[in-house]
Amino acid sequence: MELEYQGIMVWVEQRDGIAKPVSWQLIGQARRLAEKIGAEVFALVQGHQVEHLAQEAIYYGADRAYLVDHPVLKDYRTQPYSVSTLEVIRQVKPEIVLIGATYQGRDLAGAIATHLPTGLTADTTMLDVEPNPSRLLLASRPAFSEKLMATILCKKYKPQMATARPGIFEALPRDESRTGQILRVPFDMKEEEIATKVLQFYQDEERVNLEDAQVIVAGGRGIGGPEGFAVLKELADLLGGVVGASRPCVEQGWIKNTHQVGQTGKTVRPKLYIAVGISGAVQHTIGMTGSDVIVAINKDPNAPIFNVAHYGIVGDWQQVVPELIRVIKAGKPAVAGAGGAAK
Ligand SMILES: Cc1cc2nc3c(=O)[nH]c(=O)nc-3n(C[C@H](O)[C@H](O)[C@H](O)COP(=O)(O)OP(=O)(O)OC[C@H]3O[C@@H](n4cnc5c(N)ncnc54)[C@H](O)[C@@H]3O)c2cc1C
Fold it and tell me: Least buried of 61, 119, 173, 205, by fewest C-beta within 10 Å?
């Protein structure tokens, strides 16, 4: 059967030629969905001097990468990015389009959805597909104040589009033996036609990039107050990481909500997640169990966090964390006495 719309397209988000991890995570998930319905996976790479990302997309699982390389696409701007995305979608006619639910991804997805005769399911946390012949995308996301999961279908129109939260899906291992096609798509837009100009980037010192962090030291209610986060920050800095938090800490005003991990916060996948004074409620753990290694520090040996931790330290964080900091600074292995191992 010849389908008018075919293939699953993933938008590869990049900044200064470096891809956001969510791009490879979504290509991994697209590959899993594609296997179910016998479809191909396409990557859409936009930017300036970003051909290497088209190749990377293939290493991460794409069969084909559409490359739109143009000076006006150097920095993300809604107008040139949405115009070129629409051109590619209209030419290629993918049956599904997946975009990371990042600031830029949400902006782009909303902008293109207003021009395409189809719907957009925003901020999904589960993606599946019905087998042939329906090939319907099953896009699920929390609804009604996160009390239930809603699965949203776009039955009549194509492409079926969704944004998906970073950190939820696992990227496939990068495989340099994978081969695929890179197709350059011509794009003609003049700088004068674009209403917005990027003059400068300001680094927000307080902004934390939890989703891309390799190490997160997260604090919970057990750390007792905002001053506890200063100690956690020292440990995070030593490990080259950032500070995360459970929701009560945000609600108490101990730390900004951009640090929150969990169901209503960020979903993270660092190499190392250190949970300090966090009990392990499911609304928290749902956002961090994709971490490679989880270390929990809690004074209660029965705290549920130890059920998801690979390593546990039972003890008062006010003893354990300064000791870890001291040991790391001294470059020596930890000594017994600061806490007992739970696992
Ligand atoms: C709809 C909904 C969405 C939610 N979304 C989120 C979310 O996104 N993220 C989130 O985190 N929560 C979320 N929650 C809240 C969640 O249910 C829990 O209430 C919350 O995660 C508990 O935070 P906590 O572990 O920091 O605090 P607590 O459950 O109070 O745990 C504190 C822990 O610290 C330990 N402790 C105390 N003192 C010390 C010490 N000196 N040394 C070592 N350990 C110590 C205690 O033993 C305890 O285990 C949500 C709830 C709802 C209903």
Answer: 205
Contact 297, 338 (CB under 8 A): no
For ligand 1, whether the C-beta of 146 sits within 6 Å is: yes
CATH 3.40.50.1220 maps onto the chain at 215-341
| Residue range 179-200, pLDDT digits in tens | 999 999 999 999 999 999 999 9
CATH class, 215-341 region: alpha beta
- 8-193: CATH topology is Rossmann fold (3.40.50)
Report the residue among 229, 299, 318, 320 best suited for mutation to probe ligand 1: largest number of ligand atoms under 8 A from its CB.
299
317 lines ligand 1 (CB under 6 A): yes
Instruction: Output the pTM of the full model.
Output: 0.81
Q: Is 300 in the pocket of ligand 1 (CB under 6 A)?
A: yes
How many angstroms separate the alpha carbon of residue 223 from the centre of ligand 1?
A: 11
Indicate where the chain has its CATH 3.40.50.620 domain(s).
Answer: 8-193
Closest CA to 259 of 231, 308, 219: 219
pLDDT tens for residues 122-134? 999 999 999 999 9
